[in-house]
């Protein structure tokens, strides 16, 4: 039996190279506890599936653990079917049918755990915990061959957390849940974050030694530490420098507070890489978004989903872009862009709406109050204002005048329109699909075009103008009492 020994560090600044990271990953299985009901969220959606800057809460935890773990086991309970549907088949699941505590939850994962190696235990509602912190925890754990290492933090208000009880010399004695803590123990400011690294064999032994002798009648995972200490195993505590990384999300208020911290992390990272953000407090960028250097994000910009923004772009103000790819030198102002591709030099807005499957070629201009849906617009073309383009292929150097409308829907089906290179469509024209406007064709203003226009042809389709002398006063004359 190993002698009792405590290793404790204030900074947790252990470092290792990439080869050592690889060795750690092969040795580590992550168990993520995601079976909690989340009653305080007051939601029909499982708590861990709530959206959080581009991922669910649970996906943030899984993403943080992925670089350091070879396998992940997600413990699910009520709402587990929804979790499985969200994550898919590439995940190992363990069911916790009854909610009998965190120790009981880990017990359900035991059949999926290796006999040897390291087990990293995480909560699925702690989205701010990052890979760097987990690497340091594991490096600390492996450096002394400990049976268990607890990730701890010092917090301004420890209410509700398990307290870290130490001896006068600083050695870890126990972890006490608040419900079972004495008044003196409740005054302790160092708390258990709920994240652990265990030697797999020691974890199995410790789980076999815990019971339900507490006020809640539950199996506490924290009791495993006491079991190992009594058996004489070496146990370590690793104090993280910033307690906010371990903040859990239990209700909507905490969800918003955690999101604000994550936004600050994301925006700070972008600015460090050469992105200008004029007002970080009003700029919302998902963790799944990438932004190139020398791009400027103006106030009230929202970048979400699988969005990539190139270099030297100007985005905003008051702009929302989701699941889209923008090239270099793109300008988007006061507009909404969804599921679209904007190549280099494109300008959009103000007040444009690009709907999914829109693709704008190099140096395309889309102006104010233009809506484009499921259409491709070729290089150098212009749709300056007040137009709708749907289910269309627009060639290069095409000009659509103000109020030009592609009429793609007859009430039952949608049809395609093709406008070839160099065509000109005059103001207030209706192009009734299916339709083909040939290369270099000219559609006169005010025309309703229902038949194909050959290349180079002039299309003129409007009623003949009739002037009635001296009748204007009939419409301009005011009746008695009319203002």
Tell me what the structure shows.
- Helix 7 crosses helix 8.
- This protein is 19% helix and 29% strand.
- The N terminus is likely disordered.
- A hairpin with a 2-residue loop joins strand 3 and strand 4.
- It is α/β, with parallel strands linked by helices and 483 residues long.
Any key phrases for this structure?
eight-stranded mixed sheet, nine-stranded parallel sheet, 42 strands, alpha/beta, UDP N-Acetylglucosamine Acyltransferase, domain 1, Spore Coat Polysaccharide Biosynthesis Protein SpsA, Chain A, 10 helices, 2 domains, 483 residues
Question: What's the number of domains?
Answer: 2
| Alpha carbon gyration radius | 31 Å
Helix content: 10-25%
pLDDT averaged residue by residue:
91
Shape-level CATH architecture of the largest domain: Alpha-Beta Complex
**Total DSSP helices:** 10
The strands making up the biggest β-sheet line up spatially as: 15-18-21-24-27-30-33-36-39
């Amino acid at each position: 039996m190993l002698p009792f020994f405590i290793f404790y560090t204030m900074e947790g600044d252990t470092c290792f190279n990439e080869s050592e990271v690889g060795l750690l990953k092969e040795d580590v299985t992550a168990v993520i506890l995601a079976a909690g009901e989340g009653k305080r969220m007051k939601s029909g959606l499982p708590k861990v599936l709530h959206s959080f800057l581009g991922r669910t809460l649970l996906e943030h935890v899984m993403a943080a653990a992925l670089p350091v773990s070879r396998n992940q086991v997600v413990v699910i309970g009520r709402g587990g079917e929804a979790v499985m549907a969200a994550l898919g088949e590439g995940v190992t699941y363990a069911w916790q049918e009854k909610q009998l505590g965190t120790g009981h939850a880990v017990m359900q994962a035991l059949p999926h755990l290796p006999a040897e190696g390291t087990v990293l235990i995480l909560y699925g509602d702690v989205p701010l915990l990052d890979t760097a912190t987990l690497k340091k925890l594991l490096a600390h754990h492996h450096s002394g061959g400990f049976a268990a290492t607890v990730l701890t933090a010092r917090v301004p208000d420890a209410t509700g957390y398990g307290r870290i009880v130490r001896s006068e010399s600083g050695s870890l004695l126990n972890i006490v849940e608040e419900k079972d803590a004495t008044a003196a123990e409740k005054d302790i400011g160092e708390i258990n974050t709920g994240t652990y690294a265990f030697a797999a064999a020691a974890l199995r032994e410790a789980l076999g030694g815990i019971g339900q002798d507490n006020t809640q009648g539950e199996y506490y995972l924290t009791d495993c530490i006491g079991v190992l200490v009594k058996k004489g195993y070496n146990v370590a505590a690793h104090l993280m420098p910033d307690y906010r990384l371990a903040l859990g999300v239990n209700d909507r208020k905490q969800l918003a507070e955690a999101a604000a911290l994550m936004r600050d992390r994301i925006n700070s990272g972008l600015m460090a890489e050469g992105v200008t953000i004029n007002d970080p407090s009003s700029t919302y960028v998902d963790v799944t978004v990438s932004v190139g250097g020398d791009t400027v994000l103006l106030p009230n910009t929202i970048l979400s989903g699988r969005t990539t923004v190139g270099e030297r772009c100007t985005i905003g103000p008051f702009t929302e872009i989701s699941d889209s790819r923008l090239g270099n030198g793109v300008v988007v102002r006061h507009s909404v862009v969804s599921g679209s591709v904007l190549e280099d030099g494109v300008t959009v807005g103000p007040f444009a709406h690009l709907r999914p499957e829109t693709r704008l070629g190099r140096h395309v201009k889309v102006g104010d109050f233009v809506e484009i849906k499921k259409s491709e617009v070729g290089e150098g073309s212009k749709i300056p204002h007040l137009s709708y383009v749907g289910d269309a292929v627009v060639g290069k150097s095409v000009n659509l005048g103000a109020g030009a409308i592609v009429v793609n829907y007859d009430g039952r089906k949608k049809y395609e329109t093709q406008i070839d290179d160099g065509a000109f469509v005059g103001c207030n024209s209706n192009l009734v699909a299916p339709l083909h406007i040939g290369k270099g064709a000219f559609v006169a203003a005010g025309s309703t075009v229902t038949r194909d226009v050959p290349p180079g042809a002039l299309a003129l389709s409007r009623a003949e103008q009739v002037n009635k002398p001296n009748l204007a006063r009939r419409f301009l004359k005011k009746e008695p009492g009319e203002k």
